[in-house]
Amino acid sequence: MDINMTLLGQTIAMIVFVWFCMKFIWPPLMAALEERQKQIEEGLAAADKGQESLVKAAAEADDIVAEARKQATDILNQANARANEIVADGKADGVKERERQLSAAKSEIEQESNRAREELRGQVSAIAIASAEKILNREIDGKAHDDILGKLAQEL
Amino acid sequence: MAAEGGHGPQTTGDYIQHHLQNLQVCKAESGEWVWNECAGNPMAINVDSMFWSVLLGVVFIVLFRRAAKNSSSAKPTKFQALVEIVVEFVDSSVKDTFHGKSRLIAPLGLTIFVWVFLMNLMDLVPVDWIPFFSSEVLGIPYMKMVPSTDVNVTFGMSIAVFFLIIFYTIKNKGITGFIGELTLHPIAPPTKGIGLIAAPFMIAFNFILESVALIAKPVSLSLRLFGNMFAGELIFILIATMFSGGLLLGAGGGLLHVGWAIFHVLIITLQAFIFMMLTIVYLSLASESH
C-alpha cells in the first residue's frame, strides 16, 4: 500500500497514452464519424429530394395523360365531324347524280319517243297515203289530192 | 485452489495477504536490485501494476488505433461500431460538460474511460488464475493483476489530472487568476477601510480552505477508484477462500462469486465513467470563469 515510484511510472504511461490517443486515435475517428454523419444527412436529403421529384413527376405524368386524352377526344370529334361531312357530301352528290342521270334518261326517252313518233307519223302517213292511193287509184288521180293528203299527214 | 504451490500450507490470512502483495523491485541499501523486500522503500516499483496497466494501455491503443485506421471505410465492422459508440459516448459527455475548445479533453476522457475500464475489467478474471500461473509456471511469487487496486496507479493518473487542472486554470485565468482563486474565495477580503486589517486573516483562511479543496480533487478521484476496486477485489479473494472450505461452502462461494461478478460489471463500468466524468468536470471548472 506504500506510495512509491509506480506512481511516477503510471503518470508517465498515462501521458504517453493520452498523447497517442490525441494524436493518432481521436482525430481520425472523429473525422470518420463526422463524415459518416454528413453522408447520412446527404443521403436523407437526397431521398427527400427523390420523393419530391417523384411526386412532381407523377403530377406531370397525370397532366400529360390528361392532355393526351383531351387531344384524343378532339381528334375523335374532328374525325367524326369530317366523316359526317363526307357522308353528307356523298349523299348530296348521289342525289345530284341521280337527278342528273334521271333527267338525262328522261330527255333521252323523250327524244326517243319523239323520234319514234316522227317515224310512226311518217309511216302512218305513208300507210294512209298508200291505202288512200289504193282506194283512190280506182277513182281519182293521186296528184290532184296531194295537198289534202299533206294536210292530213300534218294533222297526225 | 487456495493452496498456493511452493509456499507450503498456509492460513486464510496468509492467502489473503499473499493476494494483496505487489510484485516489487527496488534498489536495496546494499546497492543491489532486490525483489519483494521493499516495504516502505519510496523508490520501489510495483512491477505487476506497471506491467498490467501498460499492457492494457497498449491493448487500448492498438485496438482503437486499428479502428481509427479503418474508420474511413464505408461499411464499418462490428468492432468499429463498438469503438465508435464509445467515442461518441465520450464525445457527447465532454460536449455536455466542457464548453470551451480543447483538443486534449476529449481524447483524455476517452483514454481514461477505456483504460480504467480495462484495468477494472481484470477484476473479473478469477483471482487465482494469473497468480497461480505466474507462481507455478513462471516462478513469480506475487502477481496482483488489477492495476486499479494499486493506490499508486490511481494516484498516478489523478496527479496527471491535478497538474492539468492547474495548467488549465493558469492558461485560462492567468497566474493571478489562479492565485486569486486560491485566496479570494469564498470570503472576499475587504479592500479598503478599517477592515483591511482583517484581510490577511481572511486570505489565509481562504487559502487553507481552497487549497484543501484543490488537493481534495485528485485525492478523492484516485481514492474513490482505488477504494472501490480494492474492496471489490478483496471480496473476490474472501469468496475464493470459501472454495477450500468443503463442498457446501464451496458451492455457496461459487454462487456468491457469480453474483458479485455480475454486480461488479456495473461497478467497474461506473467507476471508469466517474473517473472520466470528474476529470472533465474539474477541467471545465478550471477553464470557465465563475
Describe the structure.
The complex is a heterodimer of chains A (156) and B (290). Chain A has one domain. Chain A has two helices and no strands. Chain A has helices spanning 6-139, 146-155. Chain B has one domain (47-287). Chain B contains eight helices and three strands. Chain B has helices at residues 12-19, 47-70, 78-97, 105-121, 129-138, 151-183, 199-242, 246-287; strands spanning 24-27, 33-35, 45-46. Chain B has a three-stranded antiparallel β-sheet with strand order 2-1-3. In chain B, a hairpin with a 5-residue loop joins strand 1 (24-27) and strand 2. The longest helix of chain B is centred in the C-terminal third of the chain and has 44 residues, at 199-242. Chain B is globular, with a radius of gyration of 24 Å. Chain B starts with 11 loop residues before the first helix and ends with a helix. At the A-B interface, helix 1 of A face strand 3, helix 2, helix 3, helix 4 and helix 6 of B.
How many DSSP helices of chain A? 2
How many extended strands of chain B?
3
Q: Low-confidence stretches of chain A at least 5 residues in length (pLDDT < 50)?
A: none
Write the H/E string of chain A, N to C.
HH
Order of helices and strands of chain B: HEEEHHHHHHH
The tally of structural domains of chain B comes to: 1
Strand content of chain B: under 5%
Low-confidence stretches of chain B: 1-8
Bin the strand percentage of chain A: under 5%
* Gap between N and C termini of chain A: 171 Å
What characterizes the major β-sheet of chain B? 3 strands, antiparallel
Give the proportion of residues in helices of chain B.
Answer: 55-70%
Give the N-to-C terminal Cα separation of chain B. Answer: 57 Å
3D shape of chain A = rod-shaped
